[in-house]
Amino acid sequence: MTTTVTSPAPSAPQDLKNPNRGLKTRTPGEGRMAAMLLSPTLLVLALVIVYPLISAIHQSLFSAESGLDADGFVTEGEAFVGLANYADLFVGESGRRFLNAFGNTTFFTVTTVLLETVLGLCLALAMNRAFRGRAFLRASILVPWAVPTAVSGLLWRWIFQSDGIANSLLGSEILWTAEGTASKLAVIIAEVWKTAPFIGLLVLAGMQIIPEEVYEAAKIDGAGWWRQLGSITLPLVKPTLLVAVLFRMLDALRMFDLPFVLIGPGKESVETLSMLAWDESNQLRYGSASAFAVVLFLYVAVVAVVFVKVLGADVTGAKKLGSKKRKATRSQKAEATR
């Protein structure tokens, strides 16, 4: 006698209707608790970021003026000028200084970040290898990044002075801290020396999570070191590298303290937008200073948007979270159709 055992029909339609079934959902109470816990941080951010930004935009619409009242006394105040401060950025002496500072800022950002990326990648590759003394190498590489920028500027100013170490080694009398190309080169050298370890550290963190089995499989397939670098290492550390480059570009666009300490204020060859805004505010021209600051903020915002939207830099980790959710959904659908 043959006995037939029938299994219950799978509940595929119900599972397919709700592919997110089994995933943890957030209740309204948890959302309110999260907002309550984040409110102090959001309040601090509003005080230190949103309010100064709104204040700078408001101040950029005014200009300081002085005159004589009906009694012949000198009066000072601010008059609403609208977008006149922004229009002055492209005409006259103010426009010339702005374009010069904008060019210096862009030049320093592109040059230093490019050199720091190449050097930081080389440092990460060196620190990722297993050899005796690797811990000492990692610690020594991070020393320049740990030095405060003002101290670093004073150190390199001592190196680049007329009778300093740089001229002694080169056997020349180059005026590194004066106007000209030499001052630009001095700023680039000092900036790359200080911040290249930052990129190296972040790229090293990305290399540490690459499974060793991937390299072993590549070696079995006959891939050499250069092939492994181009096909495994660089593609897998690309997200980390993009975030590191983004952070460095945003920091370089706001460059102020290093050229200010190393070369000094008022030097056209190294004057950046931050230095120009500081000089304008130091001359009590707060309207134009605020206009420079707002333009710099927009410049930084545009660069950030390009990196996040166009180049795909995952700053918040949302792409990884979305990928995990999609994998969980696909696995649940596969289990439901079995």
Largest sheet: 2 strands, antiparallel
Q: What is the number of helices? A: 14
CATH class of one domain: Mainly Alpha
The oligomerization state is single chain
The Rg value, from CA coordinates, equals 28 Å
Shape: flat
The name of the CATH architecture of one domain is Orthogonal Bundle
What amount of the residues lies in strands?
Answer: under 5%
The count of strands amounts to 2
What is the H-and-E element order? HHEEHHHHHHHHHHHH
**Average pLDDT, all residues:** 81
| Uncertain regions spanning at least 5 consecutive residues | 1-17
Tell me what you see in this structure.
This protein is mainly α and 338 residues long. It has a domain at 94-284: MetI-like fold. It is built from 14 helices and two strands, in the order ααββαααααααααααα. It has helices spanning 12-17, 28-59, 84-87, 92-128, 134-146, 149-159, 165-170, 181-208, 212-220, 225-253, 257-262, 273-282, 286-310, 318-336; strands at 62-68, 74-80. β1 (62-68) and β2 (74-80) form a beta hairpin. α2 (28-59) packs across α13 (286-310), α5 (134-146) packs across α8 and α8 packs across α10 (225-253). Mean pLDDT is 81; it is low at 1-17.
